[in-house]
Specification:
Strand order of the largest sheet: 3-2-5-6-7
Structural class: alpha+beta
Strand content: 15-25%
Helix content: 25-40%
Distance between the termini: 44 Å
Radius of gyration: 20 Å
Order of helices and strands: EHHEEEEEHEHH
Number of strands: 7
Largest sheet: 5 strands, antiparallel
Length: 137
């Protein structure tokens, strides 16, 4: 069993990226760091190291637990790293994702929402998020 593996290969194997080429492109673009140094796709990582990945506007932090060379199932991939992403980043994702899961319903024949309707919907969503935050603390 190897003790080191390429960073792009590991990111793909533990399902941080959908494909190895996406992982390689992200590393080449300087979006993957080890401590404060940017990595190259062929950089080797080993267990115990912390990797920072910028993906889709979010900064994710992972501690490597196990080395993988081949892609595995999602449950097995979770055993290979510890997600050390700060709570602020997770909340940033939560704020972005709210309202994206389902479409809003309008009665047939009412047409598109007007600008006034849109503002009321946005105000309601903001109010709902504030109430949800109060009860989650």
């Amino acid at each position: 069993m190897t003790t080191k593996v390429r960073v792009d290969k590991w990111l793909w194997a533990v399902r941080i990226f959908k494909s190895r080429s996406l992982a390689t492109d992200s590393v080449k673009a300087g979006k993957v760091k080890l401590k404060d140094s940017t990595l190259k796709p062929a950089s080797l990582i080993s267990p115990g190291q912390c990797i920072t990945v910028k993906k889709n506007g979010f900064t994710l932090t992972f501690e490597v637990l196990k080395i993988l060379e081949k892609r595995v199932s999602a449950p097995m991939a979770l055993e290979c790293y510890i997600d050390m992403t700060p709570l602020e980043e997770l909340n940033k994702f939560k704020d972005w994702y709210v309202g994206k899961s389902g479409v809003e319903f309008r009665e047939k024949g009412e047409g598109r929402p007007t600008k006034k309707d849109r503002r009321e919907i946005d105000t309601f969503k903001d109010w709902y998020l504030e109430i949800d935050d109060e009860f989650s603390d």
